[in-house]
Structures are given as C-alpha cells and as structure tokens.
Specification:
By secondary structure, this protein is an alpha/beta fold. It has helices at 6-9, 12-17, 30-41, 74-87, 151-154, 170-179, 198-204, 300-322, and strands at residues 20-26, 46-50, 62-63, 72-73, 92-94, 98-104, 107-112, 117-125, 129-131, 147-148, 162-166, 185-189, 210-213, 216-223, 227-234, 239-244, 247-250, 254-256, 286-288. Strands 1, 2, 5, 6, 7, 8 and 19 form a 7-stranded mixed sheet that branches. It has a 5-stranded parallel sheet with strand order 10-17-11-12-13, covered by helices on one side. A 3-stranded antiparallel sheet has the order 14-15-16, with no helix packed on it. α3 (30-41) runs parallel beside α4 (74-87), α3 (30-41) runs parallel beside α8 (300-322) and α6 runs parallel beside α7 (198-204). It binds flavin-adenine dinucleotide (FAD). Flavin-adenine dinucleotide is lined by residues 26-32, 49-52, 55-57, 59-60, 63, 65, 97-98, 126-129, 131, 149-150, 153, 257, 260, 290-291, 298-301, 303.
C-alpha cells in the first residue's frame, strides 16, 4: 500500500546522512528506477539522484508496448514505477543535476548542483538520451500533435494516415518499414543522399505506397490544432513545396546524455557508453544502463531490464571486491 509519509524520508537531509553509499544511481527514468528497486531488494545502501523523475516517459503521450499495460499514459507508467520504488523507501534526491563524477581509488565522488558531494562504492549512469531534433519552426509546437520521434512506439497511431519520415540513415529506413502495416501513404524526406545500409534500402523497393524526396530540406512543420504538413526546399530546383501529411516521424538519431563520464569510459562514435554483459563500463565499479548505452533499441522495457541487470551485477561486484566489508 502506498504510504505518503515515506516522502518525508526521501528528502535531501536523509540523503546527507549517509557517509558512503554502496550504490548511487544517476537518473530516474525506467533504467534508474528499476536499478534502485533491484538494488534495494538486495539490501544495498542505494540512493537516486535525478533531475526529473520519469525521464522521457514524461514526453510520451501513450505507451502501448509495455507488457501488462495495453495502453497507458507515459506519465502514469512513470508514477507506477516511482510508487513501487517509494514503497521500498529508496532515498531520492530530485530536482538536481549531477555535475561531475570523479574516481577516487575504488570509490566515486559525485558532485551535485545543490553544492554537495556524495561518495559511493559503485555508480550507475542512467541519464538516458534525447532524440535529435530538426530544429525547424513548428517542430516543438506539433510534437505529439503529429510530430513524433519513435516509430517503434507510435507507428500504430498512424493507421490509414499519410506520414512523412525525416532522415536518411538506418533508423529512418526502419521507421518507414515499421509504418508499412499502418500508414496509407509514406513520404521519406532527406536533406542529402541515403546513408542507410544497402540491405535495408533494398527493402524500400517493394513498398508501393512510398515516395522518396532526397536532397530536400524540411523548413517548417505547419498545421492548426494538429500538424497538416511540412514546407520543404528542393535543393535541385531551389523551390519550396508544401507536402500535406497527418504525421511527421523524425528519425535522425539520438543524443546520449553521456557527457558526465564520456572522457573516463569507452564510448562509441555516437558518444554512447560501451558496457559489458553486466552493464559495467570500462571503469570497474562504474555501470551504465538504458538509452545512454550503445544498445541499439531505445525502449522502456529494455532500459528497465538493463537497470535490473546493472543492480544485480553491482551486488555481485560489491561482494567480490569488498568481501562483506
Ligand atoms: C516521444 C517519445 C515516445 C516514446 N514512446 C515509447 C513507447 O511508446 N514505448 C517504449 O518502449 N519506449 C518509448 N520511448 C523510448 C523510451 O522513453 C526510452 O527508451 C526510455 O525512457 C529510456 O529510459 P532511460 O531510463 O534509459 O532514460 P530516460 O527516460 O531518458 O531518463 C533519464 C533520466 O536521467 C535524468 N538525468 C539526465 N541527466 C542528469 C543529470 N546530469 N543529473 C541528474 N539526472 C539526470 C533525467 O532527469 C531522467 O530522469 C519514447 C521516447 C520518446 C522521446
């Protein structure tokens, strides 16, 4: 049963009382919250430091692919995760940013925007990522009103609609493929030539309802209550054109929030953190989970699962390294 009195115990004062944590989690999205839940159940001294509980779930209108919930609002799912973590009385320091992470011998010092520093034996970075934006007029205004950044998540919402896909890499082509069972018409628009793999591009040849506009730059998203189309510049003719559509799927990559540790751990070319099968980075004791890692499928259930894996691995690591200390 949810207990409101727990809230009092999860404020900064309680957080400050612990001299050295077993495990600190940076981030309160699906990865961070599930990691804390699993760690607490193992009896670890665990706390969460987070700017905004819920992470990207707060920008998600409807989730219909998290098993057990056929249709749930992103924020409601996040509240359910949080309630579960609160039942276990995990201390949460929220509304703050972690600004620096420093390794001192085996431990980590975490400096936070409240001016304080916390020491922990192990640390999880679960700071997620953000879809890369086009940065054009109307994009923000029509987000969730036709504009979306996640084909896997939103394709079924475009049943019998005309959808524009922005991008020319693998994720844009996969976005087109995800839309095929749902959309009545698909238009792919990309500012230069395709960068996607040939094996994926070959699949586009069989899609009758697909139009492709390469060397075409999106200038703005237009609409009223909902988006109704885009303005685009044809770079060959230098002419502007209006393409009417019900949706715009922007698939131009994600940016991992990895800057806190990208200079001390191994990352890939997109600055996503490399981890082993136990979610451990190249620095022993420093773990990463969810969208901040290089795992290719950025989804709630996958982030949550990686958080769980990290917590279980942290528990094993502490037993091995500290031998019951
Ligand atoms: C519009 C949209 C719709 C989506 N729809 C779906 C869907 O229907 N189904 C699905 O499975 N997936 C969906 N996704 C993807 C899903 O939301 C993500 O894969 C998932 O949220 C990633 O979880 P995470 O915990 O790794 O990171 P995030 O959710 O990004 O959480 C990151 C956390 O870290 C915190 N943080 C970041 N930096 C700092 C810092 N320096 N200090 C303190 N805290 C920090 C943030 O405040 C946040 O709490 C969608 C994504 C978007 C953008």
């Amino acid at each position: 049963m949810f207990n409101f009195s727990i809230d009092k115990k999860t404020q900064s004062s309680e957080f400050d009382q612990i001299k050295k944590w077993d495990f600190l989690v940076v981030g309160g999205g699906p990865a961070g919250l599930n990691a804390a839940l699993y760690a607490k159940r193992k009896g670890l001294k665990v706390g969460i430091i987070v700017n905004e509980i819920g992470g990207q779930l707060n920008n998600t209108t409807w989730v219909d692919n998290y098993i057990g919930f056929s249709m749930i609002e992103g924020e409601e799912l996040s509240n359910k995760f949080l309630d579960h973590v609160k039942q276990l009385e995990v201390p949460i320091l929220k509304g703050v940013y972690v600004q620096g992470i420093e390794q001192v011998k085996q431990d980590f010092n975490v400096s936070v925007s409240n001016g304080k520093e916390y020491t922990t034996k192990t640390l999880l970075l679960a700071t997620g990522g953000e879809p890369r934006k086009l940065g054009v007029t109307g994009e923000k205004e029509f987000t969730n009103k036709g504009v979306t950044y996640c084909a896997t998540c939103d394709a079924p919402f475009f049943k019998d609609k005309h959808v524009i896909v922005a991008g020319g890499g693998n994720s844009a082509v996969e976005g087109v493929i995800d839309l095929v069972p749902w959309a009545s018409k698909i238009t792919l628009v990309h500012r230069s030539q395709f960068r996607a793999d040939k094996i994926l591009l070959d699949k586009l040849n069989d899609i009758d309802k697909l139009d492709i506009h390469l060397e075409t730059q999106i200038i703005s998203v237009v609409g009223n209550e909902q988006m109704t189309g885009i303005q685009a510049l044809d770079k060959h003719t230098n002419e502007k054109k209006l393409i009417k559509a019900d949706g715009l799927l922007i698939e131009i990559g994600t940016e991992a929030n990895s800057k806190l540790i990208k200079d001390i751990v191994e990352t890939n070319e997109r600055e996503e953190i490399k981890v082993d099968l136990n979610q451990m980075t190249s620095v022993p004791g420093l773990f990463a989970a969810g969208d901040v890692t290089e795992q290719p499928f950025k989804q709630i259930i996958i982030s949550a699962a990686e958080g769980a894996k990290a917590a279980l691995a942290v528990n094993q690591y502490l037993i091995q390294i500290y031998k019951g200390e």
